[in-house]
Structure prediction request, 305 residues.
Amino acid sequence: METVLKNFFLALSKNQMLNQMAKKWGLRFGAHRVVAGETIDEAIVKVRELNEKGLTCTLDHLGEFVFHEQEANEAADYCIKTLEAIAAAGVDCNLSLKMTQLGLDISRDLCVSHMRRILDTASKYGNFVRIDMEDYAHNEITLEILRELRKEYDNVGTVIQAYLYKSEEDVRRLGVERINLRLVKGAYKEPEDVAFPLKKDVDDNFKKLISLHLESGSYTAVATHDDAIIEHTKELEKKLSLSRDQFEFQMLYGIRTATQLELSRQGYRMRVYVPYGNDWYGYFMRRLAERPANVAFVLKGLLRK
Ligand code: FDA
Prediction:
């Protein structure tokens, strides 16, 4: 049943008609629990509240299905506006983005020129930009562009997904270059020839990647809601006598909030991934796919409307 619901929500997340309609609806069906608002001002209010509770943040302006240059230009402008709003508000927050939003599927050059504009703005404000990792089809080109950008910028990093067989090799290589990585399990549906099909193997590989990257001395963001992975990281902290400045935990806005606060109370750097924008529908469906038990709050949201 769980798999049926998971596939159902993943299929819904790709529905472009519903996506277009949702932009006009405003945040509905309980989406406000995992999306911080539709405007940058609303998102900054939420970031400030999280900062006051001891949590640092990364803001992500949501966007799906970019096919035209104009849409990519607008997405890049939003990234810049977000960096400016973070600086103006003086909140503790960096930026996460997806390169397909910046036109990666339209033209590599277009995407790289937008990345340069965004990284110049981030440098001006002493901020950092994280390139989210998308599906396997975009994996190698993302790493290639990262390497190109790293020749000019040191305030950029990316994400490595533990479900991919290639990730161990990537982490070893990026570790030598001391690249700041966010490590995750991986959120897309990938075939067995590129990704571990069994959850246990993904979890084992995740632990291995965390050890490798920390041992290389590189900054490591462990992004998970999984207690076993968090415990593994805490054990490594002791075993390797790590400074707490070398790593952080990350979780999504609205998910396991009590655990986020507890990790911060224990003195760990805890960063919350805060998505915002009117293009919330696909992101919301993917969160439901991860945990179909959350449909309960969708049903409550439906009854309220
Ligand atoms: P897992 O899914 O095994 O969950 C462990 C436990 O956490 C569950 O048993 C449950 O208790 C709790 N939990 C998990 N999801 C929940 C939910 N939705 N609601 C309530 N409880 C929940 N992926 C990717 O491919 N590219 C990327 O760039 C990113 N970026 C990213 C940033 C951040 C900050 C996070 C936290 C995650 C990502 N991901 C990602 C997503 C990641 O790959 C993965 O799909 C999810 O984090 C779920 O995996 P977990 O490690 O949380 O474990």
User: Anything to note?
Assistant: Residues 69-89 form the longest helix (21 residues). The chain has one domain: 36-279. The mean pLDDT is 93. Residues 36-279 form a domain with the TIM Barrel fold (CATH 3.20.20.220).
